[in-house]
Structures are given as C-alpha cells and as structure tokens.
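During the second year of the project, the team shifted from modelling isolated chains to modelling whole assemblies. The rationale, set out in the original proposal, was that interfaces cannot be judged from single-chain predictions alone. As a representative example for this report, we include one of the complexes processed in the last quarter. Its constituent sequences, exactly as entered into the pipeline, are reproduced here:
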Amino acid sequence: MATIKDVARAAGVSTATVSAVINDSAYVSAELRARVLAAVRDLNYAPSLAARNLKRGRSQLIALVVADLANPFFSRVVWAAEAAVAAWGYSLLIFNSDEKPELERRILARVRTLSCDGVILVPVGDSTEHLQNDPDGKPIPTVLFGRTVADDRSDTVTIDNISAGRQATEYLLDLGHTRLGTITGPLHVTTGRGRLDGMLAAMRSRGLTLESRYIRSGEFREDAAYSVARSLLEQPARPTALYVASGLMALGVMRAVADLGLRCPGDISIASTDTIPGIGGLRPRLTRTEHPLVDMTNEAVRLLVDQIRRGGPVERRNVVFQPSLVVGDSCAPVVMQPGTPPSSSGSGQ
Amino acid sequence: MATIKDVARAAGVSTATVSAVINDSAYVSAELRARVLAAVRDLNYAPSLAARNLKRGRSQLIALVVADLANPFFSRVVWAAEAAVAAWGYSLLIFNSDEKPELERRILARVRTLSCDGVILVPVGDSTEHLQNDPDGKPIPTVLFGRTVADDRSDTVTIDNISAGRQATEYLLDLGHTRLGTITGPLHVTTGRGRLDGMLAAMRSRGLTLESRYIRSGEFREDAAYSVARSLLEQPARPTALYVASGLMALGVMRAVADLGLRCPGDISIASTDTIPGIGGLRPRLTRTEHPLVDMTNEAVRLLVDQIRRGGPVERRNVVFQPSLVVGDSCAPVVMQPGTPPSSSGSGQ
DNA sequence: AAAACTTAGCTAATCGATTAGCTGGGTTCG
DNA sequence: CGAACCCAGCTAATCGATTAGCTAAGTTTT
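Output from the structure prediction step:
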C-alpha cells in the first residue's frame, strides 16, 4: 500500500506538502494541491492511523466494555454506541468482561496498550483503581455506564435503579398482590442493589415486608434466573407475583413458569425492569420499567468525547435517567388467581 | 505513561534488552531480566501498539462489519466473534453498514486506514471490488459471513440457505398446508434469494406453486416485515401458513398477527429461519430452521486468522453449514384451522 | 600464542505519519 | 539601495516500538 512518500514522489512535492493537503492544515497553492490529490487518487493512498497515532497520540478508537455481551440489553447498547461514536468520527472496539472482575482488569490493560482515546465501561468489579493507577500519566477518559463504582471519579450515566424497582413493584401492589418474590441481579453491583432497594421501599411504604425465602439472585443471567425461579416457584406457598430485575432474567423466569405448567398471569404475575425489544407479538407481553437506552448511550458517548477533547474529566458528571413503566399483559389482579389462595399452603405444580 | 526508554533507563539496560525481555525474543541473563521486569512493574509500563504496529505492520485488530446491528442475529454474531478473536489474541472492531452499500465502502476504507489485520464482512453490496482494488498491495485478509458475493475471491462461511428454506417449507407442507405465503429478505442478497429458492423447490416437488401475491419482502427488518405481513394477511383469501426468512422478521410477523386479532397457529401457521434466542418461555414458540451460529462464527474467525498468518488467502475456502429444524408450537395441521376454509374468500379480520 | 569463533548486550536505522523551524525568493519600508 | 519582513514549500526531528548488525569479551581451535 502506498505511503505518503510515494504520493510525494509522484506529485513532485515534499511529504509535508502532502500532509498539508490531506489535512488542510496549511496553505498550499492550487497547482500543487491538484497534483497531490491526483497522486492520492492514482495511488489509492490511505494514511496509516498507526503512524498518525504515534505522532499525534490519538487513535480514534473508543472501547466499549460490557458486562455480558450475551445479554440483549448490552447488544442494544453496542448497536447504539456504534452509531454514536461513528457520528463523532471514532471506531468502536468491543470487549466482553462476562461479569468477571479479573477479565475486566486485563481488558482495561489492553485498552491502554491500544491507546484508545476513551472507554465506556459497565463496571463488574468493586473498584476501577486500575483505570486510575497510572503513575506518570493521566488516566484514560472514561464514562461508567449503567452501574457506578464507589471509588471512581469518572463521569457516569445511569438509570434511577431505585425508581425502576419501585415503579414495577408498585404496579404489582396496586393490583392487590401482597406476597411478592423477586429475582435480583448480583447485589454487589449498583443495578442489582438499587432495584432491590426500590422494591423494598415500595413494600415498606405499604407496611409490607419481602420474605427472604422469596428473594433469589439470578445474577442477570437467563439460565441462572430459570433455575432460581423454578426453585422459588416450587415452594408450597409460592408468591403471587414476581419482580424480575432484568429483561433477560425475565425470559428465564418465563421459561421456568412454562416448564412448571403455570400460566402467566393466570397463576403468577411478573413484572420486570426492561425486556427484549421486538417481542411484542409474543405472549405474554411483559409489564416492565424500561431504560431510555438510546438516550443513555448517546449521552455516554457525548460525555466521553467531551472528556477526550478536554483531556480528561474536569469535574465528575453523573447523568441519571428515569425509567418508564410500560404495561403489558403479564400481570393480573390477585383476585383472578385461582389455585393458590393467598393464606393457604397451596399444592401448586 | 512510561515508554520503553523510561524502562531501559530505570533498569540500566538498552531498549533492545527491554524489548527482548518483554517479547522473550532473545537470550537475556537472569540478572538483567529481573531488573527489567522490576522496572516494568514499578513504572506500570504498557507497550504502545501504535508503535509496534508501525514497525511490525500488525495491528492486532479484526474488524467485523455486519449488515444490521439492530438485528439480534448479528448481535449474537458479535458476541461469538468477540470471544473467538479474544481467544486468538485480537481485539474486535464493530461496524454497522445498515444494509447500505455506500456506507459499507466507507467502512472498508476506514478498516484499511486502521490497518486491521483482517475483516469479517456480511456483504450488503453486490461487489467487494473495493476490498480487492489495492493497486500496489495485497488485499486485506477477508472472510465473508452468511452471504456471498459473486465476484469475490475471499473465504466464505455460510449456511445452506436453500436447505433452510426448504426444510421449513416441507414442515408446513407435511402438515397439509397448500396455500403458503412468504416474507422474504432482500432478494439481491444470497440469504434472501437462497431461502426463497428453497421454498419454491420444496413446493415444486409437490406440484405446488407459490402465488406471487403471497410473496412479500420484509428486507430482513422487523418493522418492514410487520407492514408487509399485515397487508398480506388482510387479503380476502389469506394463506394458511407463512414461511418467514429471518427470526427478526418473524417477530414482526407475530406482531402483525396479534394486531390483526389472529391466533397463531389457530388462524395462521408460521415457520421461520432462525429466531431470537431465550424466548422459549413466550408463546407461541417458533418452529424454525436454525443456524449453528457459534460454530459458523468460530469457523470464520479461524479461517481469517489462518489467512492473516499465511499473508492472505491461498485458495478460496467455502464452508457451508447445514441448518437444523427446531419444532415449536407455531404451526398446526391445516385441518385444525376454522374461520378460513381453504377455497373460500374469507372475512378474516 | 595467535587466530577463529561465539554470544550477550548495545547502537541506531526504520516503520509512516506530523510539524517546528528553515530557506530562498519576493515585497515593503526607511 | 539595503534592511527588514513575509511566506510557500521544504528538511528533518520525532512519536515508541523492533530488530539487523555491531562490539567486546570470553572460549575454542590450530
């Protein structure tokens, strides 16, 4: 492939002149400019971003590190992020930390050696000190997405997780449910913790408590949610409704319900935070609190590009989006549920 | 951030010695090696891949260019590809050509300036000449995924699209359906064309024809499939079964069925190629022919890494995977369908 | 003992861009 | 007319790695 020297030779000018034409960074006479552009075209010249990166210290790469790339929620974040970074002139590198803090560390080390201009991180560990611990240089521009970490000083873009849990729970309580269960995310991450806290707050405000035997963690995974939901629902006095902390786990819970021969919402009402998009033609349609995911992703990219341009964060910015309740047909009033009277030890299958 | 010169100075050796230790590329005495590693640790040194790329001509980046990143099929390809390239020591750049040939061209130009070591491409145009037309250099190592292009000389990894269409159609014909419709992909791409051809072949082998009024293209999009399915199903003599050429379009078709107040499979049977994973808990469960998507992606990455290591394709390799039929509950024998006798002009809603 | 060989570590050229500072010719000012 | 200034285009240093070839000291062979 042609280099800038080849173009310079073909056009009969210096490499500085070719660079000035390509970058429009200095005056070049019309005659010389035309010769350079003709040579660029004839030689099909494309500059090497490695060389440019080495000289300018900019890679034009943004890294997106998600917690679980098998989760359709994060797939949609990838889709939104690719479009957003492309609009700003960047390319997107994708990494999957798969909910493993040690893998996250190795990925972030890789991001540094790739000289990414910035990183959007869904943190899976408790700390991002490895982003900060650069003894002789400034940390890489970073935005935390969806989840936060206590010791971090990066910009953050999140949803109000407490509100997400609370709104879904209130919907179930408004339908008359009093014996609720929940399938949570991992409670050491802010999304898992916050949504449970929101549920607890909603119940507490009505003088209700959430029994610990009705709390299981599905670790934000479909298969884990399936397993814990089965065991929860197989209890003699099962709950009449479940709040599920993610859309992916909601699918696992649905699969457990189906496999136990239960009907939703006939036998069990289910509300969740988020769902899989595009499945409105399938039954039941989940009642859920939803993230404004595209807005969140665009905002994360905007904050990151701003940090890159300013050379790092000036002050920490925490942008919190509000979830919205979307009513489907996966919940019914408690009175409509035969087979398991609220106060009896039922024999549900 | 520390450079190799800083490490060399701290360890009291030359940069060549540091490089030899880091890369284990030449003998270095145990004493010097220990000094270098201590300095690397103390300075938190990470090599610059831009500099390394400039010298070695390798970026350790693989680009994945998909046709529609909003399509969950391609999201799963991203998930599988990220894991596969990471296992080979590469990082994954994601690009979305959004079914636009001109955007594909610009993306591939970008891939060249980023000096990607290779590219996996779901082609959306009719030609990949812009991958080949590098007047003075070898083309970038490329594997075409899912779709092929007539003039290309790259390795390809595909599914047997004809078999995919045929198997799903035969399932419907075996249930007694004779008036079939289809929602196709774009017919200028091999996946759209091949699946329709498979359907036509299955029907022809039973002396049946597919009426042109029952053929609509959903362009592999959920919303387009929704629209064309509605208009197809609103016809007075609607088909008793539909073959839908992608999982994403099948969701759009389901949504149209629901909105028209029809029941699946009570009023209309639906079979597809592929579906969204993880929705087995929702009804109806699609009967479909499935891609072995993870195997296909792993094979594409394996072929690409092999090309990179050999310095380009030696001979063209076309790996064709076979689809498999997975039976759900979205299809019923034709006799069970009240409300629309096969030969009458029905008044279906 | 001298010549030939071996080898650990070093020097410096190179990859392909960018850009600070230089240069020669032209213009303006005193 | 000479000094001072201007400016389009050029030269070459630089970014941070890698590595070919060099060097000096030690070992082996004649």
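The longest strand of chain B covers residues 61-66. Residues 226 and 252 of chain B are 4 Å apart (CA to CA).
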